[in-house]
Here is the input.
Amino acid sequence: MKPPLIAALLLASAAPAPARAQQASALANPPANAPAGWQEARADDLAREPRRHFTLPGKFLPPVPANANAANPPSLLLKCAAVPRSTRVGKFRVGAVVVGLPLEIHMVELFERKGGLSYLPEVAVSYRLDEGKAVTDDWPPRADKTSAEFDKSEFRKMLRARTLLVNLSDKDGGELRLQFDLPDPAAPAAPGSIATAEVARACGVPAIQP
Here is the structure.
């Protein structure tokens, strides 16, 4: 017979397993009532210019990380400068893949003509659009080190795709696999969401090239 303390510890360690499995399922299979398509979020940064923020929810692909939060799934984030209504076309400032988990960061040498070598933090990223070839790149991490930034050229490519797959690593070297379903820019917006064409214009892309 096991001592009472050991038995209690064994029960405590075994109990969370179903909860972890349920959370992993929720992260890999968002509920049907989860927000779909582009959403406008409150601009909470301290930029001097007025900005519009847009988010697109994504999901983890198996194996889902054990420390992921089902209430905070991965997302795409766009920060764009707002402009007068007469102009209508905004300006892209920065985009980011928001993972929500600490990412693996490596230092990249950068040669400066006057100062010699310096080092920049980067996140190694591999991404694929639809059935295209995987692209490997280094993206700068944001200050929170749980997301990586991309530029306007990558955003333009994403607008032409329907699926974005992103592979990167957490701070312990574990593989993270993310999927984002990108709305068709030619289709009307899903209820409660913003049309892709409107997001593109707000972020400096007045026309989406096929």
Notes: The first helix runs from residue 4 to 14.
